[in-house]
Amino acid sequence: MNKTIITENQDSEFIKVYTAYEDYLYLINVSEYTRKAYLSNFRNYYRWCRKEKIEDIYNQLEVRAYLIFRVKNGAKWQTMNNIYSAMRKLFKEVLNLEWSFKKLPRPKKERHLPEILSKQDIQKLILGCKNNIKHQTIIITLYSTGMRVGELRKLKIKDILSERKQIRIIKGKGAKDRYIDIPDLLIEVLRKYYLTVQPKEYLFFGKYKTQMISVSAVRWAIRMAKKRMGIDKKASTHTLRHCYATHHLESGTDLVYLQQNLGHKHLKTTARYIHLCKERYQHINHPIMQMQLPMLQKEKMT
């Protein structure tokens, strides 16, 4: 267990609360990403209180003031929601303090549709790193499976079940395991990659073959491919996940099947991709088009 080392000149009360919060997050087994994000949000709140010379730090009215400060300074919904969740968990579950929804309502979710790349743009991204088989395979794997970048970097060779045409995801979002069905083409790509690069443990390793690749390295690979091919649209690791879901729906893939592969808890999360489908709506046949409407028949006769 790698616990956070607090090196700043902080008061003993903060260190005590910070450590208790960290221990609690370990006990409830949240992901490493969530743990770091929650602790970072608490640290930032503490720094703000010190800067504003606030003495009663563990008071929900001060948290309210901090949330207002952040949103007025341009913080987006996702950031605000993360701060809210971190402070609410700290107050209610670690400090056993009051948390009133009337005083501190949860920020309303913003509904933004993500930008989607065309299949042609995906092809360009893949071609953009044709001289680097590792980067090329990373992009192909992300697009072919729809997995998250955090899931990709933890993939081990033993997680590729080629005979079953599946990839096993260990402790994905929400610490849940799942299987992703993969096409024959991806199996061929991974086979060629394995024979060429010869990874030891992690499928996509970092500086050393015993280390998993960093998120920044994956992002850099996509950014460079995008630059080489002159793609102006936004292209990120999560964009490839959005493209996976949208292009599948446009091709007629079942929604429940996609939900399972993507690892969504609720079907409505997967259903939002229907709004991004362009080709899907081109094949819609309205039932009324097959009906003979008397009011229009008269017009045709005249």
Query: What distance separates the N and C termini?
Result: 83 Å
Assign a percent range to the helix content. 40-55%
Rg, nearest Å: 24 Å
Query: What is the strand content?
Result: under 5%
N to C succession of SSEs: HHHHHHHEEEHHHHHHH
List the helices and strands and how they pair.
Layout: H1 12-27, H2 32-51, H3 60-72, H4 77-94, H5 119-127, H6 133-145, H7 149-153, E1 160-161, E2 166-169, E3 178-181, H8 184-197, H9 215-228, H10 237-250, H11 255-262, H12 267-271, H13 279-282, H14 294-301
Antiparallel strand pairs: 1-2, 2-3
Structural summary, described in words:
- Helix 1 packs antiparallel against helix 2, helix 3 runs antiparallel to helix 4 and helix 5 (119-127) runs antiparallel to helix 6 (133-145).
- Strands 1-2-3 form a three-stranded antiparallel β-sheet.
- The chain folds into two domains: 12-94, DNA polymerase, domain 1 (Orthogonal Bundle); 119-282, hpI Integrase, Chain A (Orthogonal Bundle).
- The chain is mainly alpha-helical.
- It has helices at 12-27, 32-51, 60-72, 77-94, 119-127, 133-145, 149-153, 184-197, 215-228, 237-250, 255-262, 267-271, 279-282, 294-301, and strands at 160-161, 166-169, 178-181.
Question: What descriptors fit this protein?
Answer:
single chain; 302 residues; mainly alpha; DNA polymerase, domain 1; hpI Integrase, Chain A; three-stranded antiparallel beta sheet; 53% helix; globular
What's the short version?
This protein is mainly α. The chain is built from 14 helices and three strands.
